[in-house]
Write a structure and sequence with these properties.
alpha+beta; 9-stranded mixed beta sheet; 5-stranded mixed beta sheet; 20 helices; 32% helix; 26% strand; binds adenosine-5'-triphosphate; binds magnesium ion; catalytic activity, acting on a protein; cytoplasm; ligase; protein biosynthesis
């Protein structure tokens, strides 16, 4: 490809709200452009990189025995009503009506569609197991679309679904997908961890998330440097989710895993210590509430406009009160009384002086204890002092101290069981003619999110440093003086030779100053830059490797061998 004709609008500056490095670089390098919040166009170079990821995904899915298909993005509401998710999926599901007033959803995920299809087409155990996948655009009306492709409202996902006749069959299908994911993320050049995850409200059993390690990641990983243990934060603290962990499970998860939080005296500090955002932390702390309503008392500088966090947390009733609220109310009892909560858990900053007075009285000494039952004063209230909260300091498996890291969820594998096959009637008949529900698994990869995660992990201050497998082009050929006939002739020769040998080459034949070209080459970040300039008469080009900056000269005759 000749760069002269390429749609590649590079930028020196990017909008200030582009916080993530990958977002900034994708805008600067002319890979993507935003159409609307969380909705992007892929320009030619961005699309090429995305396609390379898709190719890797396809190769590994096919190798694992999965079959590619393509399903519609427009789903009749009846399907989502039949599974019960029309009501529970919430505002993230994009909904619309056709001209006849019939309701539809834009696919956020495809369990309903695939299960209905398989229900209609597969009836016998002889056709099982089967794993089907697609690479398709998904729609989710995210509450906070951000970080460019990392959290979009329209994004590309590979989603796969397995159908088995037995639990052991599901185990095998799950393992095949898990292994394929390891291969995919390795080939994409990602540093990642597979972590145990929380199966939440869907009611499955095993589930793992694949986390690309990056500071910008919105997830917190708890891992053990000494053994294989790795989990996401929710799992690590044994988040109470309706069906899953009972309060006693939570207690046993927490008991052996206390963490020291030296010098930490506020919720905010604790969240910094744990590398979590405050909301995520409060969510984890809510675990200690044994399913009771939770009241979180916070300093005035938190996002008090979200006084009702129920919606955010989803799991249980959580109310946030600011210091100012407490002062206004006079006492927590004064707040609880009117709304009729008699059995609540308080999570609080003991650094809030007003709180101390309000909850337990300034003179009561034992508020340092982790759970202080102050039922005498306020009814049945559990009080959690953040200074003593334990979130898992030593690993359950080996006793080693746990470490925390930030991750981007690039993939998710999930044993669904029979939830969808039962609600949508996907059954098969076994050898004896008995009807059984199919046992399902689902497996997602955020293909467009992977692209951003790769850049998040592979860049420097000058630009992107593509891993060879993903790079839009592998060679960037740069002609210093396009007005110089000899330089152009040599460049053309190199371009054709390399292209014919199967290399993808972008030839910078633009009439730009050399400085501009060199900067753009660093920004675009292809693995090898070849410069045709001063030593054209000796048939010598300059080579520069983007990943380590190595610079050397080479005779054109040696070049082809070198590239191979
Ligand atoms: P998250 O926790 O980041 O919201 P999720 O758990 O809701 O993701 P899944 O339902 O597990 O996502 O979807 C499968 C994969 O799709 C995720 O592992 C992630 O890689 C990708 N994905 C999910 N939401 C988005 C999004 N808004 N933008 C880009 N990729 C996404
Ligand atoms: Mg989500
Ligand atoms: Mg998730
Ligand atoms: Mg997920």
């Amino acid at each position: 490809m000749r760069q002269q004709r390429l749609l590649n609008p590079t930028l020196r500056d990017v909008p200030g709200d582009a916080e993530a490095a990958s977002h900034r670089l994708m805008l600067r390098a002319g890979l993507i452009r935003q159409l609307s919040s969380g909705i992007y166009s892929y320009l030619p170079l961005g699309l090429k990189a995305l396609q390379h990821i898709q190719t890797i995904v396809r190769e590994e899915m096919d190798r694992a025995g999965a079959q590619e298909m393509l399903m519609p993005a427009l789903h009749p509401a009846e399907l989502w009503k039949a599974s019960g998710r029309w009501d529970v999926y919430g505002p993230e599901l994009m909904r619309l009506e056709d001209r006849h007033g019939r309701e539809f959803a834009l696919g956020a995920t495809h369990e309903e569609v695939i299960t209905t299809l398989v229900k209609d087409e597969i009836h016998s155990y002889k056709k099982l197991p089967v794993t089907l996948y697609q690479i398709q655009t998904k729609y989710r009306d995210e509450r906070r679309p951000r970080f460019g492709l990392l959290r979009g409202r329209e994004f590309l996902m590979k989603d796969a679904y397995s159908f088995d006749r037995s639990k052991s069959g599901l185990d095998a299908s799950y393992q095949a997908m898990y292994d394929a994911y390891v291969n995919i993320f390795t080939r994409c050049g990602l540093q990642f961890r597979a972590v145990e995850a929380d199966s939440g409200a869907i009611g499955g059993t095993d589930t793992h998330e694949f986390m690309a390690l990056a500071e910008v990641g919105e997830d917190t990983i708890v891992h053990c440097p000494a053994c294989q243990y790795a989990a996401n934060m929710e799992k690590a603290v044994g988040r109470i989710s309706n069906e899953l962990a009972s309060p006693s499970d939570v207690a046993t998860t927490l008991q052996p895993t206390k963490i020291h939080t030296p010098g930490v005296t506020s919720i905010k500090q604790l969240s910094q210590f744990l590398h979590m955002d405050t909301k995520q932390m409060i969510k984890s702390l809510a675990v200690l509430a044994d399913g009771k309503p939770v009241i979180v008392l916070v300093r005035g500088d938190l996002e008090i406009n979200e006084i009702k966090l129920n919606h955010v947390l989803g799991v249980q009733e959580v109310t946030m009160l600011s210091e100012a609220d407490i002062t206004a109310i006079g006492s927590v009892a004064g707040f609880i009384g009117p709304i009729g909560l008699t059995n609540v858990t308080l999570i609080a900053d003991t650094s809030i002086q007003g709180l101390r007075n309000a909850v337990i009285g300034a003179n009561e000494a034992d508020y340092h204890l982790q759970h202080v039952d102050v039922s005498r004063d306020l009814g049945d209230i559990t009080y959690v002092d953040v200074r003593n909260v334990g979130l898992g300091e030593s690993c359950i498996h080996c006793g080693h101290e746990l470490a925390f890291a930030k991750g981007i969820e690039v993939g998710h594998v999930f044993k669904l069981g029979t939830t969808y096959s039962e609600s949508l009637g996907a059954t098969f008949s076994d050898e004896n003619g008995l009807s059984e529900p199919m046992i399902m698994g689902c497996y997602g990869i955020g293909v467009s999110r992977v692209l951003a995660a790769v850049i998040e992990q592979h860049h420097d201050e000058k630009g992107i440093i593509w891993p060879a497998a993903i790079a839009p082009y592998s060679v960037h050929l740069l002609t210093v003086q396009v007005g110089d006939e000899a330089q152009m002739a040599l460049s053309e020769e190199i371009y054709h030779t390399l292209t014919r040998a199967g290399f993808s080459v972008l030839w910078d034949d633009r009439e730009e100053r050399p400085g501009v070209k060199f900067n753009d080459a660093d920004l675009l970040g292809f693995p090898l830059r070849l410069t045709v300039g001063k030593k054209t008469s000796e048939r010598i080009v300059e080579c520069k490797e983007r990943h380590n900056g190595d610079l050397y000269e080479m005779n054109v005759e040696q070049l082809l061998a070198h590239c191979q």
